[in-house]
Amino acid sequence: MSRGYEPQEVRRVRTPRRGEIPAVVEQILGHGKLRVRCTDGKVRLGRIPGKMKKRIWIREGDVVLIKPWEFQSDEKADIVWRYTRTEANWLEKRGYLNL
Asked: How many whole angstroms separate alpha carbon 33 and alpha carbon 89?
């Protein structure tokens, strides 16, 4: 192997499962809450669960995967996953992300 060459890690992109919707972060509201625009056309209040809050940083414009609450499903949701820019491009090419 030549010096400076790093083999790229091949990772599978997490696709939306049942009940999950891709969304784009519109605004950070603080205290682990953010406003997201979902692919179903609704704007929801997203909440970052405690186990994700310490591990991952989410910024405006990031593509996330949300799971709407069973109660108030049109208004509130939990953030399940944050996609990298490359993964978001892959989702857009495959038709999962149509905003």
From this structure: 25
Cβ contact 82:34 at 8 Å = no
Question: DSSP assignment, residue 10?
Answer: P
Q: Distance between CA 74 and CA 8 in Å, rounded?
A: 39
Tens digit of pLDDT at every position of the chain (99 positions): 556 666 666 678 888 888 999 999 999 998 899 999 999 899 999 999 888 888 888 999 999 999 999 888 888 999 999 999 999 998 889 888 876
Q: Tokens in use for 47?
A: 């909440």
Rounded CA separation 27/78 (Å): 15
> Which of 23, 30, 58, 63 has its CA nearest to residue 44?
23
Which residues does residue 20 pair with via DSSP β-bridges, in sequence order? none
| DSSP tag of 6 | -
**Strand (E) positions, 1-99?**
21-30, 33-38, 43-47, 63-68, 76-82
